[in-house]
Fold Chromosomal replication initiator protein DnaA.
Amino acid sequence: QWSRVRARLQDEIGEVEYRNWLRQAVLHGLDGDEITVMMPTRFLRDWVNKEYGALLTSFWQAENPVVRRVDIRTRPAGAANPAPDLAEPLPGGAGAGKTATAARPDDRADGAPPLDPRFTFDTFVVGKPNEFAYACARRVADGPAPGFNPLFLYGGVGLGKTHLMHAIAWELSQRADEVTVAYMSAEKFMHRFVSALRRQSTIEFKNELRSVDVLMVDDLQFLIGKDGTQEEFFHTFNALVDSGKQIIVSADKSPSDLSGIEDRLRTRLGCGMVADVHATTYELRLAILEAKASRAGVPVPGRVMEFLAQKITANVRELEGALNRLIAHAHLFDRPVTLEAANEVLHDLLRAYDRKITIEEIQKQVSEHYNIRISEMSSVRRARNIARPRQVAMYLAKQLTTRSLPEIGRKFGNRDHTTVMHAVAKVTELMAADADFAEDVDLLKRILTV
Ligand code: ADP
Ligand code: MG
């Protein structure tokens, strides 16, 4: 039962989210009508409770009608952990919260995940396109690196910038207990700054930031046009660099191309080490697939990997998504991964991919089809004649792209991933019940993938 519940969860929320949050969940037992599930840390417990509690309960009830409640608790210290490689979100027992602010309790509120345990140097595959960025990251992780301050990593989406930053944070927090590392997205930086302003606690915020040894701010392009936050970042930046602390920043463009960021900030950003993460090559994609497949412990024939490496070229995240789908499928149906299975499982995805289908395109096509304005895709209106097409578009986005549920939600007026999940379930259900509706959706799918 538990393995079926887990398989459904994985299917529902996607492999990546599942691995981030739920893989370490351990079934403790059934007592009366209550199931107890154990999580290794309080942070994970609270998160899973909040985000997936309802889902867990309903899947358990579907498996076993006796179940009324699912209680999520923390595993007592010292208890065996089924996934020793992921034992703690932060290694070395250095204390979640001490060495990386990403895991601090007050960071739960806005849903920033802690450092991803998979993003280490060990799991980063090095090739021509990223070897320079990798070397710079390694150098910074080795300790004081004056010529590398700030380290500015830039490149397109899904090419490994966040992975490298987390790897540096892991390495530093593992090696030296006294080094405090703060990792946050630029978005998060802004939220914290703004809420500090609101609570009139900017002094504390400043002091806190200025007390770290290493500050990492991811996706700095988010600060374009946010002048107040840029100003604050600029001062923090100067204060830290002046006192010899390391700064690491990532963005989608080089400092000189980041228009909309103040000149003096851009200048300072570019005066340390600037490293470009280039688009992947076929060789790198193949090497990444090999590494991921062997870590997943599922045999994937070379031909399948060559096929994927040839087809899925945009970025590593999409490549990973495709491989994960294949592996999930193999697990679910207990079948080996073959080229035929790859063609079948990834059929829609590959066709859409060949056309580089985007969520925007899906939204446009679906709105036209149902004769509603495209802006309704992101609107809050809930009337059936608007909400249904929106759900169809979410469903198609899930089917035809490798975007995760949260990513899809964001494109639909910043909706929650659970909303997307419900849309997918709803449309699936309706398609099974209503042949006309199913035909309609299939037609849309064909239009989008021809
Ligand atoms: P970015 O921050 O540049 O948008 P990420 O660091 O989030 O990209 O990477 C996207 C996904 O691809 C992550 O799951 C990451 O682990 C994986 N990835 C990217 N580059 C590599 C690489 N060289 N080796 C292994 N995995 C990689
Ligand atoms: Mg990133």
